Amino acid sequence: MIEILTTGGTIDKVYFDANSKFEIGDSLLPELLTESNIHDGYEIRPLMRKDSLELTDEDRQAILEAVKASACQRILITHGTDTMAQTAEALKSVADRTIVLTGAMQPARMRRTDAIFNIGFAWAAVSLLPAGVYIAMNGEVFEAGSVRKNLAAQRFERA
């Protein structure tokens, strides 16, 4: 069983106008999992609905506590990309579980999104990797503490 924790981020954004006004909407994760042909073996637990730039140290502590309280050894976390590396770093103290964070550069509600691919890729990563904390984005896996988001290139890379 894999527990999936949702925290918000771009993957769940809903845009309202050309000025990029947005809010974090209901998660499309059940639909994304179905599109990825993943139908069972997971439990979804929503934690928060925030843009990752708005996450606080208290929010990261809440994510850490949710991970520690989980009965699952494998945990997938959907997260905004801007501070994903910081949250991964905050989870490094959990040594006995496989934790994978993923998200999207474009909202799942948009026609051209990387959300479906990233969810499927993260599912494979959390299913196969040994215990540790990882970020799985756009076909690459990075260990916590050795990754950063390259905002100009819109991708993650080794730090």
TrEMBL record:
Family annotation (SUPFAM superfamilies): Glutaminase/Asparaginase
Domain L-asparaginase N-terminal: 2-152
Coiled coil: none
The organism's place on the tree of life at top rank: Bacteria
Keywords from the named record: Hydrolase, Membrane, Transmembrane, Transmembrane helix
Catalytic residues as annotated in Swiss-Prot or TrEMBL: T10
Enzyme Commission (EC) number: 3.5.1.1
GO molecular function: asparaginase activity
Name of this chain's protein: Asparaginase
Organism: Marinobacter nauticus (strain ATCC 700491 / DSM 11845 / VT8) (Marinobacter aquaeolei)
